[in-house]
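Please fill in the sequence for the structure shown.

STRUCTURE ENCODING:
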């Protein structure tokens, strides 16, 4: 009997324990869904606006007119002007060097004596010719005498001798004058090669000088910049009386302290530079060592400067800050509360701003906040949503 009841009791106990476990089984704790990622950004509402293109370039200062001084006569240098030193200023016609003039003074005296003798010989020949003509008529001849009888060849030779003596005197006086080496223009000494006591000839270099009315700066232009500037080009049959537009240029120098110089682009070179494959323009600064230089460090030849050239004035342009560009080809916009990656075409850019040719429209909300690894479609919270679009554009345009 017990053997029959025991299996039943064991089964009943196992069933009871199973029921107890089922009734008291632990419940899994389920965490709430993670909150959706929201990125806080600042935006700029785009709108077309007038824009003055300013092209960036660089160059070195060089003289517009530079000369190597050479003597036209030989001799020993006896005097040097205090202004004929490296960096010295001089005026047009100023005597910079004296060459020993005693030999040339003697040559002038000799030429004057030779001229006096030739004039005396001419007077004697004229008197003989007049006497010969009187003798011819006294003999009863009514026709003109032959040339030899009237001494015409001898008279012509005497006149030629006078002319030759006069030319010799002018040459001697010119050589004497050339013993004073005069400045051909108002300028400055770049370098000197001689000093007092040195014997020079017509092939001896005395020094390098340059004019101070203008200085020039040769500025390369990027190929992409050429469409945004009116170049001062000339053509073969242009009327020179016409006034060509000469873009303004601001030159910056930090040699000693930050300084600015105003100039203008006056001409375009006629060839592409072979090393850089770029076109160069030439800018000038008027009177760089006169009143314009007062209170500033004067420009130095071969001094490095950066340039900002006035390009074209665009009536309507979409301008964005360079910091909003990623890899130079796309930006982020806010549309319907989420980020959208937008490919753009850049027409031109400088170190701060870029002109957009395609990809953006007026009213687009450009993200200004720098973004890292953010996917397109991420929800955003705009921090300056209430900002006035016109005010935002103007303020962003004034940022460096």
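FILLED IN BY: designer on duty
SEQUENCE:
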């Amino acid at each position: 009997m017990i053997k029959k009841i025991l299996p039943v009791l064991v089964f009943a106990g196992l069933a009871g324990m199973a029921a107890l476990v089922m009734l008291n089984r632990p419940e899994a704790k389920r965490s709430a869904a993670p909150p959706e990622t929201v990125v806080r950004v600042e935006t700029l509402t785009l709108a077309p606006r007038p824009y003055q293109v300013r092209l960036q370039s660089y160059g070195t200062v060089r003289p517009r007119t530079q000369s190597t001084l050479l003597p036209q006569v030989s001799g020993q240098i006896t005097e040097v002007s205090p202004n004929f030193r490296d960096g010295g200023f001089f005026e047009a016609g100023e005597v910079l060097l004296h060459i020993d003039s005693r030999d040339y003074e003697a040559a002038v005296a000799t030429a004057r004596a030779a001229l006096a003798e030739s004039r005396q010989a001419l007077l004697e020949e004229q008197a003989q010719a007049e006497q010969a003509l009187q003798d011819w008529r006294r003999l009863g001849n009514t026709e003109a005498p032959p040339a030899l009888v009237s001494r015409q060849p001898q008279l012509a030779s005497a006149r030629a001798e006078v002319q030759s003596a006069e030319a010799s005197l002018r040459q001697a006086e010119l050589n004497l004058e050339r013993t004073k080496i005069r400045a051909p223009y108002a300028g400055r000494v770049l370098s000197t090669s001689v000093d007092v006591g040195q014997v020079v000839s017509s092939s001896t270099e005395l020094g390098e000088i340059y004019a101070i009315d203008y200085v020039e700066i040769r500025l390369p232009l990027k190929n992409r910049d050429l469409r945004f500037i009116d170049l001062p080009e000339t053509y073969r049959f242009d009327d020179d009386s016409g006034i060509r537009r000469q873009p303004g240029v601001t030159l910056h120098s930090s040699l000693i302290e930050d300084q600015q110089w105003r100039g203008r682009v006056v001409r375009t070179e006629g060839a592409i530079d072979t090393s850089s494959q770029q076109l160069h323009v030439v800018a000038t600064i008027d009177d760089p060592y006169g009143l314009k230089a007062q209170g500033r460090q004067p420009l130095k030849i071969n001094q490095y400067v950066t340039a900002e050239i006035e390009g074209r004035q665009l009536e309507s342009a979409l301008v964005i800050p360079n910091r909003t560009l990623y890899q130079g080809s796309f930006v982020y916009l806010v549309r319907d509360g989420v980020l959208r990656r937008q490919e753009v075409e850049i027409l031109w850019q400088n170190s701060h701003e870029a002109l957009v040719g395609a990809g953006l429209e007026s009213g687009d909300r450009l993200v200004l906040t720098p973004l890292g690894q953010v996917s397109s479609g991420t929800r955003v919270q705009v921090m300056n949503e209430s900002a006035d679009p016109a005010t935002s554009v103007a303020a962003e345009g004034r940022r460096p």
